[in-house]
Design brief:
The structure holds 2 protein chains of 2 kinds. By secondary structure, chain A is α+β, with helices and mostly antiparallel strands. Chain A contains 18 helices and 20 strands. The N and C termini of chain A lie far apart (56 Å). Chain B folds into 3 domains: 198 residues, 2-Layer Sandwich (Aldehyde Oxidoreductase, domain 4), CATH 3.30.365.10; 189 residues, Aldehyde Oxidoreductase, domain 4; 344 residues, Aldehyde oxidase/xanthine dehydrogenase, molybdopterin binding domain (Aldehyde Oxidoreductase, domain 4, 2-Layer Sandwich), CATH 3.30.365. In chain B, strand 10, helix 7 and strand 11 form a beta-alpha-beta unit. In chain B, helix 7 packs across helix 8, helix 10 runs parallel beside helix 11 and helix 15 runs parallel beside helix 16. The longest helix of chain B has 28 residues. Classes of the chains: A alpha+beta, B alpha+beta. Chains A and B meet through helix 2, helix 3, helix 4, helix 5 and helix 18 of A and helix 2, helix 4, strand 27, strand 28 and helix 19 of B.
């Protein structure tokens, strides 16, 4: 079947993208091609949320339902909008009447300079599509990726918490059935592509097409959420010749639960896989809420977080501690490896040419085994970790029966602390042995100093986290985390 | 003859009764001074319809600028090869300083800020050449292709080195009173200390941006995101070597500024104008976020120290303070900024015998600039450190020491620069907050919590703010305004102030509406333009409303006086019998009670628009300028004495924090603020300024860390590495109150007080509370040294330092006992 062009719904209008640079972002497309200037560029790196737009797509479980997701238009390649509905701030006001999330911001005096405001409007809009009466925690979670430099946020929180239970049905609700139908029609289209100026963008629908494409064009660059890759374009002015988008590959967007494993496709965004992981490992759920922002988690994927092999990605240390595995596919050949083995050196991995990450296999919670996670960063939300500690431990009769400890930010790759483990494993779980394990950490790691933290802080805090883990396990009632305090 | 619009069709409000009972607040005029009118652009902000520079319709053929930057901190330029830049895709024009027809130095106050490098570079990121290309991205790509060779020179990259080499951008300056050295020596107790206070990136959400469009006669119209359109006009004219009257500068609104667009918006406007002049096309210059962060100055980092003598109650008897501002490579505004740090080295406290020295250190970094507080915050930090240090030394609660050192009434009420602290209510304000925040009971709770918890510790602190209001450069304390009334009764307002989100346009519109007693939406506000109101001051120093509000009021009063005289002549009534009320004009004898009861039968009434039309037909001028200059202020820089400030804005805050002694992480749990804004012109806007200023100050003192490497390159150059407060950093329990019913004793506009900058410094209580929590680890016996920003790393090291001091102490005690 010949490939389709990129087609999507811009509010209610079907738009076809032809003859545009596959490297342009959704934000550039909106502002420079369509002259829709309501969506703002604050940082062009997905950190401030001024460019927030909302994407509605058919629910994975029920193709007659829509899910609304806030995303950062500045780090989303335009092609990835294929098959979805794009809603921008321009679409909310109907005639002279503001949408209730807009009116609520006005009524609460929640804009000052106004530059961040369209982004807050859209994040708040997406939130209110999920819940009519969001509580403070939900508001803070939904808006953590939107920076405001003027208000101090109190008024914005108040505005977003205002109930929309009794608000009039908005235009999106009025057009709901029609939108569902239009998106179902678009879903019938074959795989999409975009070519311009010698660069191309391909969005396969099946894993076979994907595998074949990578065999045919081994120099392709894989993009899923793009929340990291797009930075190379917007920040470092790189050009990417061949993009292959994973978001529409059906087989990579599944979550399967077996008796003892959760299998997550590499293209599943955080916001979709978080609930099942949280159910198994509560601390993992809490940690994920602090990875990036809602916008980033709506786009970013598990495969991407592993695939780009950053030493400061937050999921790999957790996956390594849990003993997770992953499959790599090249053509029709699939191999299974431990996540731990995937990383070979700084930004180097086992991934071969034409190969891609297929699924990640995460063991389900087992009685007696506890996953402790600690994410240390300057700012609580939407900040890259200085240190990420993941400790998967089983203590029986006060002896450490099984143990895997893994760190991010302590070396060029996410890595096990094997000397540290050895100091504790099969030994009494005592403060003396923790002290020995703290010492052993200096054999495992020689961390570096950078803009986020000094080498000595990284080591000190890593050592202290072992102690904290010990204290928490000794006394489950002890208060040890500022994060949990309101 | 021109036709007049039918009044009835456009004035729907003529039926409103005077003093509508539904009015949200009593005793408010219809114009709404004192009412929480929404921001004039609020509806446009939320709908995305508010137009910022980057959103303007683009002229056909519009080009985009970028600049090539220095990659070294200090060097002579050996050679510049721009051939690859010129050949790059989309490039239309490439310029260096050689192509500047007029001035090449755009220093705001003193020379030293080259528009483009003049043979030499003095910081990493300095602009060397500029490009105009067909797109923003092509311009950014092209500038990377330059080949520039340098002869590197030694770079000064620390304050310590600058001081050692007497490397200053301006000479040092001293303010003193009495014999501080002797007073310190004679005092019962002495302490010394020093502190490093980090800078702060403005992180306005809208980055620096200007668009320049050539006009006829070699002129230029410049749309710029600037707090100082008049200075941009002057500099563009000087750079192009054309008269000022050929340049028009237009600023409708900024997406945040905070001082960062006071002087440092001009360079980009000038470069866009140069390129526009050469190409005869419109040129837009938008800095990418990381370029903005590398190429524009920040809040000055300071390294201060003190030597204090005090009595056993903790009262200061003598003090020496040195403030060392890291100014970066050029003077910019640094002289006045370090001056303000010196002026605020007392904060709210009587320093008695005192010497305050201010050094303006020159470093090979970007030139640091204005930022909300303008040096004041960095000055105050030292004395707040002194308060904490004295308290720990004497084993007292820091609040007790703060209170005993406050300025007095009638005595102990003169600053170290000889200004009397008048209308002082610091003590009442602090006492009120101490009670309303339940400080003493919470103090006990916290002591108990800290006993029970070994890992998490709580801290509590109350800190005051006394901030001087006025530009310390006297001539800037003036403003102009222009008011027109059109024949449909609508009003057009211009003034010299710029709107950066602070609500200035809203407040000034309220003031004009109040004068004519019309609805505030009768007053249209539009862009600040140099051809409407000339020779304006920057919108800075919290002075926007004080200055422009008065100027606009003066313009409105002039027109109103004309209208009153006209009506009194025409209807043969006294001028007192012409009353503007409720979008109407009442003519004839009447009493207040009649008006209040809506009994208007006794008098003749016209709508405001009807009177305006009558006046127009009878040839009365309906346009006027207004002007204002601040009275009373003077300062003699030779003696270091005078009255630089018209009045002081005061406030105080209480912060409660929780720290993790194993990681240094922390959380702000509760904040109570009491701020004096005089008679508030708009409580909602004032509240927004207070909350926003506080959170911005908290960011400065906690997570916002600027990191330069050993080559002078800024590492924290994007939003991923520089962390301003996010939504969950706002405290869940955030209680802000305005001091009620307390008009400014000075004759400011409606006796209000400035509110832009003062709240930022309320965040010092967060820093002090963190220190309080850290001090608990050593049973409050030692005052922690906590440089800022107090990142989790710094907090952890401070905890470790207190722990090891406590261990040493207990070892000594043990040894003594053995």
């Amino acid at each position: 079947m010949p490939a389709s062009s990129i087609r999507f719904l811009l509010n209610n209008e079907i738009v076809t993208l032809d003859n545009i640079d596959p490297n342009i972002t959704l934000l550039q497309y909106l502002r420079e091609n369509r002259f829709d200037k309501g969506t703002k560029e604050g940082c062009a790196s997905g950190d401030c949320g001024a460019c927030t737009v909302v994407v509605a797509e058919l629910s994975l479980v029920n193709s007659s339902e829509l899910t609304y997701k806030s995303i950062n238009a500045c780090i989303t390649f335009a092609g990835s909008i294929h098959g979805k509905q794009l809603i921008t701030v321009e679409h909310l006001k109907q005639g002279a009447k503001l949408h209730h999330v807009q009116q609520s911001l006005v009524d609460n005096h929640a804009s000052q300079c106004g530059f961040c405001t369209p982004g807050f409007v859209m994040s708040s809009f997406a939130l209110h599509k999920k819940t009519h009466k969001p509580n403070r925690e939900e508001v803070v979670e939904a808006l953590a990726g939107n920076l405001c430099r003027c208000t101090g946020y109190r008024s914005i929180i108040d505005a977003a918490m205002e109930s929309s239970e009794n608000a009039e049905e908005d235009s999106f609700a009025q057009h709901y059935r029609q939108t569902v139908k239009q998106l179902n029609d678009l879903a019938q289209l074959p795989s999409a592509q975009l070519s311009c100026a010698g660069r191309d963008y391909f969005s396969p629908k099946s894993i076979d097409e994907l595998a074949q494409r990578l065999i045919d064009k081994p120099n392709s660059t894989l993009v899923a959420g793009g929340t990291d890759l797009a930075l190379s374009v917007t920040q470092n002015l790189a050009t990417i010749e061949r993009l292959v988008y994973l978001g529409n590959v059906v087989e990579l967007n599944n979550i399967v639960e077996t008796a003892d494993e959760v299998i997550i496709g590499s293209g599943v965004p955080y916001s979709q896989f978080t609930p099942v992981l949280e159910k198994n490992y509560p601390e993992l759920g809490e940690m994920i809420e602090r990875i990036g922002s809602m916008q980033v988690r709506n786009n970013g994927t598990l495969g991407g977080n592993i695939g780009n092999a950053s030493p400061i990605g937050d999921m790999p240390p957790a996956l390594i501690a849990l003993g997770a595995q992953m499959t790599l596919q090249c053509g029709d050949k699939v191999r299974k490896i431990a996540v731990e083995d995937y990383f070979t050196a700084y930004k180097q991995t086992l991934l071969e040419k034409s190969e891609f990450i297929k699924d990640i296999f995460i063991p389900k919670a087992q009685p007696g085994k506890i996953l402790k996670l600690y994410k240390i960063s300057k700012r609580l939300d939407d900040d890259i970790s200085a240190v990420l500690a993941a400790i998967f431990i089983e203590v029986e009769n006060n002896e450490v029966k099984t143990l895997r400890i893994s760190f991010g930010g302590m070396a060029g790759i996410p890595m096990r602390a094997k000397q540290c483990e050895a100091a504790l494993l099969a030994k009494p779980f005592t403060q003396e042995n923790i002290a020995a394990a703290q010492q052993a950490l200096t054999l495992d790691f020689k961390p570096m100093s950078d803009v986020r933290a000094s080498d000595s802080y990284r080591m000190k805090v890593a050592q202290n986290l072992l102690l904290k883990c010990y204290l928490e396990l000794q006394n489950r009632k002890i208060e040890t985390r500022v994060v949990n305090y309101a | 003859m021109r036709s007049l619009t039918k009044i009835n069709e456009i004035n729907p409000n003529s039926s409103i009764k005077p003093n509508n009972a539904k009015d949200e607040q009593n005793n408010l005029g219809l114009g709404g001074v004192g009412r929480s009118t929404k921001h004039e652009s609020a509806d446009k902000h939320v709908s995305g319809e508010a137009i910022y520079i980057d959103d303007r319709l683009e002229a056909v053929g519009q080009l985009h600028a970028a600049v090539g930057q220095s990659s070294v901190a200090h060097a002579n330029i050996k050679s510049i090869d721009l051939s690859a830049v010129k050949a790059a895709e989309g490039v239309v024009s490439v310029i260096t300083v050689e192509d500047v027809p007029g001035h090449t130095d755009i220093g705001a106050v003193f020379p030293g800020d080259p528009l483009l490098a003049l043979g030499k570079v003095e910081f990493v990121g300095q602009a060397i050449f500029a490009v105009a290309a067909t797109s923003h991205d092509l311009a950014r790509r092209a500038v990377q292709l330059a080949k520039i060779e340098y002869d590197e020179l030694p770079a000064v990259l620390t304050v310590k080195d600058a001081l050692a080499q007497n490397n200053f951008v301006r000479p040092p300056f001293t303010m003193s009173r009495g014999e501080s050295d002797q007073a310190i020596t004679n005092a019962e107790h002495q302490l010394k200390g020093d502190i490093k206070i980090g800078g702060q990136e403005h992180f306005y959400l809208e980055g620096q941006i200007s668009t320049a469009e050539p006009t006829e006669d070699g002129g230029m119209i410049v749309f710029t995101s600037s707090q100082h359109p008049s200075e941009v006009q002057k500099l563009v004219a000087e750079v192009l070597d054309i008269p000022f009257n050929k340049v028009v500068v237009d600023t409708r609104r900024m997406g945040g500024a905070f001082g960062g667009k006071e002087t440092q918006a001009a360079q980009w406007a000038c470069i866009a104008s140069l390129l526009a002049n050469i190409t005869k096309q419109a040129v837009k210059f938008k800095l990418s976020r990381s370029d903005d962060m590398c190429m524009t100055g920040k809040r000055h980092p300071f390294e201060n120290n003190y030597h204090v003598g005090f009595d056993s109650k903790g009262q200061i008897k003598g003090i020496n303070i040195t403030v060392n501002g890291n100014c970066g490579y050029s003077p910019d505004l640094s002289n006045a900024i370090v001056d303000r740090a010196m002026f605020h080295s007392d904060n709210a406290y009587f320093l008695d015998q005192s010497t305050v020295i201010g050094n303006r250190c020159k470093l090979n970094t970007v030139s640091h600039t204005a930022f909300r507080g303008f040096g004041g915050p960095q000055g105050m930090m030292t004395i707040e450190m002194v308060m904490d240090d004295i308290a720990r030394h004497l084993g007292k609660d820091p609040l007790e020491v703060r209170k005993i050192n406050l300025y007095g009434k009638g005595e102990r009420n003169v600053t170290h620069y000889d200004q009397k602290v008048e209308h002082n209510k610091l003590n009442e304000l602090i006492t009120k907050l101490e009670v309303s925040s339940n400080y003493q009971a919470r103090r006990l709770d916290i002591m108990e919590f800290n006993k029970q918890n070994s890992i998490l510790k709580k801290g509590l602190a109350l800190t005051p703010v006394k901030f001087g209001i006025s530009f310390t450069v006297q001539h800037l304390n003036q403003a102009g305004a222009l008011v027109h009334i059109y024949t449909d009764g609508t009003i057009h307002l211009n003034h010299g102030g710029t709107e950066m989100g602070q609500g200035l346009f809203t407040k000034v519109a309220q003031i004009v509406a109040e004068e004519f007693q019309v609805n505030v939406d009768t007053v249209g506000v539009s862009a600040t333009r140099t051809d409407k109101v000339p020779n304006t001051s920057p919108t800075a120093a919290s002075s926007g409303t004080d200055l422009n509000g008065k100027a606009a009021q003066a313009a409105a009063k002039t027109i109103k006086a004309r209208l009153i005289k006209y009506v009194s002549d025409k209807y043969n009534v006294s001028e007192e019998e012409v009353v503007f009320c409720n979008n109407q004009v009442f003519i004839g004898k009447q009493s207040d009670s009649q008006l209040n009861e809506g009994d208007i039968s006794a008098v003749q009434t016209f709508t405001f628009a009807e009177i305006v039309q009558q006046a127009y037909m009878d040839r009365i001028s309906l346009s006027s300028t207004g002007y204002y200059k601040t009275p009373k202020i003077h300062f003699d820089r030779v003696t270091g004495k005078g009255r630089p400030f018209f009045y002081y804005a005061t406030g105080a805050s209480v912060s409660e924090v929780l720290i993790d002694t194993l990681t240094g992480e922390y959380k702000l749990l509760r904040v109570d603020i009491l701020q004096d804004v005089g008679h508030s012109l708009n409580p909602a806007i004032d509240l927004g300024q207070i909350e926003g200023g506080f959170i911005q100050g908290m960011g400065w003192l906690t997570t916002e860390e600027l990191v330069w490497n050993e080559q002078g390159r800024l590492l924290s150059n994007n939003a991923a590495t520089y962390k301003i407060p996010a939504i969950s950093d706002a405290p869940v329990d955030f209680r802000v109150e305005l001091v009620p019913d307390d008009p400014n004793r000075e004759h400011t506009i409606y006796n209000s007080k400035a509110v832009g900058e003062p709240p930022l410094m309320l965040a010092m209580s967060v820093w002090s509370a963190l220190k309080d929590a850290i001090a608990s680890v050593g049973d409050y016996k030692t005052s922690p040294v906590l440089d800022t920003p107090a990142t989790p790393e710094r907090v952890l090291w401070a905890v470790e330092a207190i722990k090891s001091q406590a261990e040493n102490m207990s070892q000594k005690v043990e040894q003594a006992n053995q």
